[in-house]
Amino acid sequence: MADNRRTTTSLAALGAFALLAPLATPTAALAESAWLEQDLASADRIGLSLESGELRLDGAEPVGLGASPRLDTAERRTGLATFPEQALEGSTDTIDVDVRVTGDEEDVLTEARGVRADGMWTEWYPTSPGGGRVTLPETVTEVQLRVEVRLRVEVGPGNEGADGSAEEPTAVTEVRVRPIEGPGGAPDPEEELEEASGEVSEEVTGDDVPQPFSARLFATRIGLVGNTTANGHKVRPDDHFVALPSRRGLSNRGGGEYTVRVCSTGALGPAASGDTENHVPRCAYLPVWDVGPWNITDDHWNEDRESWRDLDRGRPQAQAAYTESHNSGLDGFGRRVQNPAGIDLADGAFNQGLQLPTNGWVQVDYLWTAEYRARAEIVTASQSDPVIVREGPGTEYDTVGLAAHKANVDVACKTTGDQASGPSGTTDVWYRVGDGHYVPAAFTTGGSEAPECVVE
Prior knowledge:
The chain is mainly beta. It has 4 helices and 27 strands. The protein has helices at 16-19, 189-197, 317-324, 347-353, and strands at 31-32, 36-37, 44-46, 48-51, 54-57, 76-82, 86-102, 108-114, 125-126, 131-152, 171-181, 203-204, 213-221, 242-244, 259-268, 283-291, 341-345, 360-366, 375-378, 387-390, 399-403, 408-410, 413-422, 425-434, 437-440, 444-446, 452-453. The strands form 6 sheets. Strands 1, 2, 3, 6, 7, 8, 9, 10 and 11 form a 9-stranded antiparallel sheet that branches. A 6-stranded mixed β-barrel has the order 13-17-14-16-15-18. It has a 3-stranded antiparallel sheet with strand order 22-19-26, with no helix packed on it. It is globular, with a radius of gyration of 22 Å.
């Protein structure tokens, strides 16, 4: 499993090609820079092989995408290549992407993202088939591309196509990107960050840190140990990750650049029964490693969501279909929605992190939707076990949840407490990563620039 958040990879979810729409092309005059060729051999590949200078589906390693159980069940072979990040000479919010293929370019999905002013990634944005112009939500200084190659496998002798003829798999022969500079140049991303979040004061309280978008969702358990998630992770018993119904927030394999904070509410079942008034929430910090449930282009946490724009922000289409018969009660694949699930939890997150007795309603904070002031990444020696989250900076404080390995958290402030030893050494420093949520700095990388916590 790779450790670098910018060079790991992710597998795409099924069926996205039919539902994706290219972004609008800016009308202002833009200056084109030189093309930056992507080395096909440098890509982190899953289900793809490099043969004679072409990326092809690996016949020896068929890949089935997505562990989240309600994904499209059509039999497919899919592979993905994620290229290393590409530094740009200047900042820009617009890039051109060019992908050359042999075969049907509709069988190749290309996505791009960039590094924000706070050092985190934007979400992934698709191009038109064969590439095209992508406008990112803010200026970036580095970009990254990933391409998915797919082939639908028809059941029959020799896996012949629907017309009875053998289908020749599509291959990728060239991938390149170039930044586009607008009149007067793009704004300085550091200035954008200062405008968005202001100066970091020496002393802060919980109200002073950026707040991510939050939504109340119905959560179900993924299960399916041994299956492969949409980003290439093989599901383990007691795993700690989530699935969300859009690939825009899908972390790279083994990464946590898109992390959610999920907290129990005490409301159980679709009818939200239970003693919510006296419930003591448990919370888990979890990376997004799969796509689902139900839909795969429903980034409901975004104002400018990719699909189902008639719905309110934060309301998953599956929830609207189940409760209000939205889209005649069907999901994006035309299937009858059987529950209002908007998030799937891996077994460890479900059973240990939140200690849910059954499927229920949870509060979800999409941490990457806020600017990070002091980003830290949770790390454990096993690279699978989570870190205990406590109410205060010491073992005498109650446990309030868990933080998964590789989860990216925003450190509101730091303080001293019990000494702890972990992958980053031995220290008595603790980080506050949420309201009443503390983790020992010994189990993180980064975050040391956070200000001291105020003693209240």
